[in-house]
Amino acid sequence: MAQLSDVTPVLNRIHTLLPTLPNALVRVAEQVLADPAEMTTLALVELADRARVAPATVTRFCRTIGYEHYRALRIAIAAETGRAEQARWEIDLGREIGPQDPPERVLEVIAGADARTIQETAAQIDLRVAERVADLVAGARRVDLFGVGGSWLSALEMQHRLERIGIASWARCEVHSGLTSAALLTGDDVAIGVSHSGTTRQTVEVLTRARAAGAVAVALTSFPRSPLADAADLVLTTSARETTFRPESLAAKHSQLVVLDLVYVMIAQRTFGRTTEAFDLTSQAVESHKL
Question: How many CB atoms within 10 Å of residue 147?
Fold first, then answer.
């Protein structure tokens, strides 16, 4: 199972780990996320009082997310919130969109949330894992991708890209076809499961079956401590910031595509000659259909 990188922004790290924390640590996390700037002014006992936990629980929370003590956590959050004040793309414009909000406000909220999501995804991704996935896909006999709902659309986009550069790939969203295909994979193949939550039962089942058949199993999820991550050999992580009308599962689409695009470009780098030839051939094939 993947661990969060040490370079992952601290607030995003807390948000990502939130579903996996015990109740007492969740209360501490919620207090921190509610107002990070104010949290940096609080003494340990004050934060403990607000979270209705013992001071020792705050210390345990710090260690759980990768900080030796409370002071180190405060410094990290202060640095992160300070950078946010200096960079326009990092300013939190809010996530709420009201029924009467003008288009300008809607665009501002959506663009701000998506820009920050992409930045957070770029900051936390483990490039060594991404390189390993690119190496494996570039040399694979075939690649199976599986996802449900919006995650399938991300998988389908990746399939289209891989097909364009001559890599045999299939994107599936129906569990029976996914399982039967996964059962026929071998050690020469790669299976990629896409799920924001990492808890979609069908995706976990398909990736588990693919791994049992000998294929390298890759998970793409926002939660590195999830059943899908447990079922994978390699885990690529994403970030998501929900807004009104766009829960996290929908907001994660952009970050999923960013990670898949990164892997795709690295695959193209590794297969440069073959990729260039494939682009020429496929462009010629559809030339007659252009006006």
Answer: 27
> Residue 220 and residue 239: Cα distance in Å, rounded?
11
- The pLDDT tens digits for 23-79 are 999 999 999 998 888 888 888 999 999 999 999 999 999 999 889 999 889 888 888
Residue 208 CA to residue 231 CA, distance in Å, equals: 5
Amino acid code (one letter) for 283 = S
Rounded to the nearest 10°, the torsion over CA 238, 242, 245, 246 is 0
- Does the pTM surpass 0.85? The reply is no
Contact at 8 Å (CB) between 157 and 261?
Answer: no
Nearest of 251, 206, 261, 255 to residue 232 by alpha carbon? 206
Let me know: does 148 contact 36? Beta carbons within 8 Å. no
What is the total residue count of the chain? 291
DSSP E strands, the chain: 143-147, 169-172, 190-194, 216-221, 234-237
